Amino acid sequence: MDGALIIRLSGFTTDDVCAGEGALSQPLLIATSNAGKLRELRSLLVNLPLVLLGLDDFPNIESVEETGSTFAENAALKASRYARQAKVLTLADDSGLVVDALSGRPGVHSARYVRADATYPERIALLLAELEKTRDCDRAARFVCSMAVAADAGQVVFATEKSCEGRIEKAARGLGGFGYDPIFVPDGFDQTFAELTAETKNRISHRALALAAVREFLVSLTGLRSDG
Ligand code: ITT
């Protein structure tokens, strides 16, 4: 990122925020309506002097449709359009499960797989049935997370994409996490994401890895000091 770039962050310029000890609390909108994601993102952003806002803090905000064909396009679209409406620095992610034997499905359609109002047990049951039908013994899969940060005028100022490799189990196991966590076993572990502790998932997940890059960007951009 160009050090000379001055980005207006909801009323502050980077120069303002970098002044002094970086003690100003910077508002950051976490633009997701997924409660599981929000929980993970909030816990991963603790220790930064940010005032974390959610979409609930903007009751009139219009939801942004994911019309892109890649995770990166959708993350940028969401960050940019929510930032423009909320007029604050905004973080959005688009993520999903990519299964090799299903030609990458459900992929960018992970949240709408089967049908928009399906439950996760229904989505998981269909995915396991489809995988069974392929008779392919390759169970390799990965969770992918694209993240984008947009300044309050809507321009995307940072983007990153990370993944977490693993495999799909034959049956769902575990009660933690959210979404497809009960059928995903990350490489190097025997338990599913839903069986591992939140601390472990937050150390190795696609979202944790992408957020580490975002944290680094936020720290370099604003002079915010991280305690964690
Ligand atoms: P927002 O767009 O409001 O953020 P969403 O749930 O629609 O919420 P996405 O479009 O990014 O979010 O879809 C991501 C889907 O991928 C999510 O609903 C889960 O089904 C799945 N997914 C992503 N990360 C996951 C994780 O860590 N564990 C389990 N499932 C995950």
Task: Write up what this structure looks like.
With 228 residues, the chain is α/β, with parallel strands linked by helices. It has one domain (4-222): Maf protein, CATH 3.90.950.10. Helix content is 31%, strand content 22%. The protein is built from six helices and eight strands. It has helices spanning 14-18, 35-44, 71-86, 120-134, 198-204, 206-222; strands at residues 8-9, 12-13, 26-30, 50-54, 90-99, 140-150, 156-168, 184-186. It has a six-stranded mixed β-sheet with strand order 4-3-5-6-7-8. The longest helix has 17 residues, at 206-222. The chain is globular and about 50 Å long. Residues 1-23 have low confidence and may be disordered.
